[in-house]
Amino acid sequence: MMDIMAMMNKIKEAQVKIKETQEQLVDLKAEGEAGAGMVKVLVNGKRRVLDIEVDDSLFNEKDKEMLGDLIVAATNKALENIDVKIKEKMASATAGMMPNIPGMDFGNIF
């Protein structure tokens, strides 16, 4: 019975730690770039776009479609980068708290 109580306490402790860490994700940032750095996008851990930087040379009518493609590519790269950081932060926050069950990746539930 003590093992079940200890496990329940660990689960509650993990829930608190997960909630605290999720609240801190707004401070986590990642950047993605495209076109050899001509377009850069900054996102936070809540997967919100914070900033877009576009090189002045891309501001002309004939490159309008390419500019859109570069913004999309940079945004997608930034989101991929932030997903990695989120997973690392959540894994660090819950290290040793979640059960180690082979084949179960608890990092994907965050």
TrEMBL record:
Keywords: Coiled coil, Cytoplasm, DNA-binding
Coiled-coil blocks: 4-31
Gene3D superfamilies, A to Z: Nucleoid-associated protein YbaB-like domain
Localisation per UniProt entry: Cytoplasm, Nucleoid
A Pfam family: YbaB_DNA_bd
Matches recorded under InterPro entries: YbaB-like_sf, YbaB/EbfC
Main location as per UniProt: cytoplasm
Domain of life the protein comes from: Bacteria
SUPFAM superfamilies: YbaB-like (SSF82607)
Function of the protein: Binds to DNA and alters its conformation. May be involved in regulation of gene expression, nucleoid organization and DNA protection.
Record note on quaternary structure: Homodimer.
NCBIfam families: DNA_YbaB_EbfC (TIGR00103)
Family: Belongs to the YbaB/EbfC family.
Protein name as catalogued: Nucleoid-associated protein ACFPFU_16790
